[in-house]
């Protein structure tokens, strides 16, 4: 498959720079089953009317950390680092992406605000191993002081005070992501309460968003792209809730592509496997979805692995036609934008 098959024209003014207020005031395009079924234009707060009693809503409860650090080398050159994951819990060594005014080399020392680090390894493709001058709770506190919220580069402004709350989902619990699972940004406590009252159950998985989610596709073919691993965890309660939903005939409704990738990665022999894992799964057209029956998702970048996943789920022609409609209807795109429900 050609990556260009997943392109679409998008005017720059359709890229959302700010979130709507309140969260669930965003628009929701409903893409039903069947090639001839009409699209529906709703608001996100109506989601409880679109799901059924017995459905299971699966959300990613990862929490974004202040992963963007800006510092200087001993020579004075500026360095920007995006933290991806620690070598182990509490470790001083992290995998990171980095850029600088001149190429970064092993042994380079970088001073951040109240924090120092050494670039130990150059891993290629802009990835590095970074060792900080402290570990554990002391490092966590230093990153909180020195780091900035890693808003995506297509949001062309610095993060403000409001982003600290709005670029987290209301279920964010487990720190570890370098980007938000953005489909979850539309939910409010009131909407979750209405879903529960309707008989829609909720379960959580944790996938810490990293390069596997947001790295652009640089090859000309889909098959030429290599996905980077990301960490996930399926709690025992979620595995039980999944089994119960399947037993009663309820749909599994994944909130976001990260939840889809976790569920499809952890599905084994008819059941959801609990516990930690790592996934580099790349879901493209032709994939047979085994764990997910419906998908709530944002509108994604052209040529991205996220758009390819949505096309795999909803059908490439159907999804790209819906995207063209979204542009015509002036939907808001990407992280702070509007959403789709695909059945």
How would you write the strand order of the largest sheet?
2-1-19-18-14-3-12-13-17
Main sheet: strands, sense, barrel: 9 strands, mixed
How many helices? 9
* Mean pLDDT metric: 96
Summarize the structure.
This protein has 343 residues and is of the alpha+beta class. 23% of the residues lie in helices and 29% in strands.
List the helices and strands and how they pair.
Elements: E1 27-31, E2 40-43, H1 47-50, E3 56-60, E4 62-64, E5 68-73, E6 78-86, E7 93-100, E8 109-112, E9 115-124, E10 127-132, H2 136-146, H3 163-166, E11 174-177, H4 189-198, E12 201-207, H5 211-214, E13 230-234, H6 236-248, E14 252-255, H7 257-266, E15 267-268, E16 271-272, E17 275-279, E18 294-298, H8 305-314, H9 316-328, E19 339-342
Parallel strand pairs: 1-19, 3-12, 3-14, 4-11, 14-18
Antiparallel strand pairs: 1-2, 5-6, 5-8, 6-7, 7-10, 8-9, 9-10, 12-13, 13-17, 15-16, 18-19
Helix pairs in contact: 8-9
Highlighted features:
343 residues, alpha+beta, QueA-like, Thrombin, subunit H, nine-stranded mixed β-sheet, six-stranded antiparallel β-barrel, 19 strands
Walk me through what this model shows:
There is one protein chain. By secondary structure, the chain is α+β, with helices and mostly antiparallel strands. It folds into 2 domains: 3-64 and 164-342, QueA-like (3-Layer(aba) Sandwich); 68-146, Beta Barrel (Thrombin, subunit H). The chain is 23% helix and 29% strand. The chain is built from 9 helices and 19 strands. It has a 9-stranded mixed sheet with strand order 2-1-19-18-14-3-12-13-17. Strands 5-6-7-10-9-8 form a 6-stranded antiparallel β-barrel. A hairpin with an 8-residue loop joins strand 1 (27-31) and strand 2 (40-43). The longest helix is centred in the last third of the chain and has 13 residues, at 236-248. The radius of gyration is 20 Å and the shape is globular.
